[in-house]
Amino acid sequence: MQGFWAVLKRELKGYFATPVAYVFLVIFLFFAGYLPFRDGFFEIRQADLRLFFTNLPLLFVFMVPSAAMRLWAEERKSGSIELLLTLPITVPQAVLGKFFAAWAFLGIALLLTFPLPAVVVYLGDPDMGQIVTGYLGSFLMAGGFLAIGSFFSALTKNQVISFTLSVVACAVLVFAGNPTTLNYLAESISPSIVGVVETMSFQTHFESMMRGVVEFKDVAYFGILIAAWVYACTLILEERKAN
Amino acid sequence: MIEVQNLRRCFGPVVAVDDISFTAGKGDVLGFLGPNGAGKSTAMKMLACFLSPDGGTASICGHDIITDPVGVRRCLGYLAENAPAYHEMTVAGFLGFVCDARQIKGAARKQVVERILSMCSIESVYHQTIETLSKGYRRRVGLAQALIHDPQVLILDEPTDGLDPNQKHEVRQLINRMAQEKCIIISTHILEEVEQVCNRTIIIARGKILVDSTPAKLSEEHGCSLNEVFRKITTTRKSA
Question: Which end of chain B has fewer CB atoms at under 10 Å, N or C?
Answer without folding.
Answer: C
